[in-house]
Amino acid sequence: DSGVTQTPKHLITATGQRVTLRCSPRSGDLSVYWYQQSLDQGLQFLIQYYNGEERAKGNILERFSAQQFPDLHSELNLSSLELGDSALYFCASSQRSLAGGGGFQETQYFGPGTRLLVL
Amino acid sequence: GQNIDQPTEMTATEGAIVQINCTYQTSGFNGLFWYQQHAGEAPTFLSYNVLDGLEEKGRFSSFLSRSKGYSYLLLKELQMKDSASYLCAVIGGYNKLIFGAGTRLAVHP
């Protein structure tokens, strides 16, 4: 158990719909990262938040958005869903931000993931 | 661009040693991670290298050569439970963590 929690575990919805995925980081961790993993594909970085502020953006579609709240939990909102959005969505947390510079170990701890199926 | 390459699949025998290679081309470098991921589960941290050389941790070791843009993960005394995907990830330009597609390792009796 990494200490990162994600809800829901599974989500089935229809094209065109909107869903919200929730993540609670490990106690004390300030950074939250969101990743998408499609079938047989590697992890694609979507977005990172650090202490409530957006810190880095990856390959996140405009239909997707995220935020980190004062209690440090984060939500990933996916709208106008398409079949291709079906994937595992992972949240990870770390104590600080990778943007703090190199030379120290900034391990990311991953939650169990939310499996999204768009029909 | 930024690119990470690792073999797609490997097979090995229980009790043997296997080496999984990773080569990377990134605009910057602030460290390299190896993660293990069982099918349908979350990745779990294995190792971190930022300086050249070998880091040993039990049955797993990881090596880095920054000048060559190369790393490997060495797994010794393979067990059936080591069957999983192994992900190489680099902290590249703008301090973004970039993952390779992963290497699926199958351990046979």
The pLDDT mean of chain B sits at: 92
The average pLDDT of chain A is: 89
Number of beta strands of chain B: 11
Low-confidence stretches of chain A: 99-104
Strand proportion of chain A, as a percent range, falls in over 45%
Overall body shape of chain B = globular
Using only C-alpha atoms, the radius of gyration of chain A works out to 14 Å
What pattern of helices and strands is seen along the backbone of chain B? EEEEEEEEEEE
| Number of alpha- plus pi-helical segments of chain A | 0
Q: Residue share in helices of chain A?
A: under 10%
Q: How many individual helices of chain B?
A: 0
The assembly state of the depicted protein chains is: heterodimer
Largest interface here, residues on each chain? A-B, 29 and 24 residues
Describe the structure.
The complex is a heterodimer of chains A (119) and B (109). Chain A is mainly beta and 119 residues long. In chain A, 0% of the residues lie in helices and 48% in strands. Chain A is built from no helices and 11 strands. In chain A, strands 2, 4, 5, 6, 9, 10 and 11 form a 7-stranded mixed β-sheet that branches. Chain A has a 4-stranded antiparallel β-sheet with strand order 1-3-8-7, with no helix packed on it. Chain A starts with a strand and ends with a strand. About 5% of the residues of chain A have low confidence. Chain B has 109 residues and is an all-beta fold. In chain B, strands 2, 4, 5, 9, 10 and 11 form a 6-stranded mixed β-sheet that branches. Chain B is globular and about 45 Å long. Chain B starts with a strand and ends with a strand. Chains A and B meet through strand 10 of A and strand 5, strand 9 and strand 10 of B.
